[in-house]
């Protein structure tokens, strides 16, 4: 518990200390990308922590995602990550981008569609996971939003524990605002296929403390059983 409180304190401090650094994973659910895209000229600061539940270390991300296309029906976001793994800062810069259209744009009742990529690193075959993906998502009354897609990445980096390439997989998620309790409460479950370190089942809840400030608390169970689960704490702020 002390570890979690320490990470929360560090995350708040980091938003101040690193306020001049651009960051972010693409707009996500708990773990996988979503079809959501940051609005034009709206920066999104975030601090994501993944805390080992078996005494293992902490992975953190800090930075910014911003909408860069001044159109309503076609949207584009871009970002840059600063990633720290257990205090190691080797090749910490990672880049991402996403292009998409909201629900109902392609035709009446059409799903949202997004294509993008993330974890484009700067060190060849070390930090350049280079994950490309496509997603569709549709919102149903009382059920919530269902998303499905597929990803592929660098087969030199995305490997299983035996070093064999494992660089593709499905993306699935459900998310919903729990309005029966509060419009500030949101829940999600997502899944990424593969046993490459990215493959995981994740679930969590979020609370919006203000229209532009939210905190997610979640849990990640990795498809490769030798990878121990992590708890995740994510602080998100739009400006």
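^ structure tokens above, recovered residues below v
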């Amino acid at each position: 518990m002390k570890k979690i409180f320490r990470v929360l304190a560090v995350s708040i401090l980091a938003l101040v200390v690193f306020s001049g650094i651009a960051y972010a994973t693409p707009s996500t659910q708990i773990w996988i990308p979503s079809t959501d895209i940051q609005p034009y000229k709206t920066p999104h600061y975030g601090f994501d922590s993944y805390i080992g539940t078996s005494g293992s270390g902490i992975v953190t991300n800090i930075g910014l995602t911003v909408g860069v296309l001044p159109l309503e029906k076609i949207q584009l976001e871009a970002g840059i990550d600063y990633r720290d793994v257990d205090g190691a800062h080797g090749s910490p810069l990672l880049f991402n981008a996403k292009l998409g259209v909201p629900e109902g744009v392609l035709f009446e009742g059409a799903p949202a569609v997004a294509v993008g990529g993330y974890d484009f690193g700067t060190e060849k075959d070390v930090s350049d996971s280079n994950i490309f993906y496509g997603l569709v998502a549709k919102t149903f009354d009382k059920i919530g939003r269902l998303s499905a897609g597929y990803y592929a990445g660098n087969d030199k980096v995305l490997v299983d524990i035996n070093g064999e390439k494992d660089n593709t997989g499905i993306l699935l998620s459900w998310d919903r605002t729990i309005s029966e309790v509060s419009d500030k409460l949101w829940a999600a479950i997502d899944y990424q296929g593969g046993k490459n370190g990215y493959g995981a089942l994740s679930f969590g809840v979020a609370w919006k403390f203000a229209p532009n400030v939210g905190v997610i608390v979640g849990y990640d169970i990795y498809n490769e059983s030798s990878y121990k689960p992590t708890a995740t704490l994510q602080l998100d702020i739009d400006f």
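Residues 1-24 have pLDDT under 50 and may be disordered.
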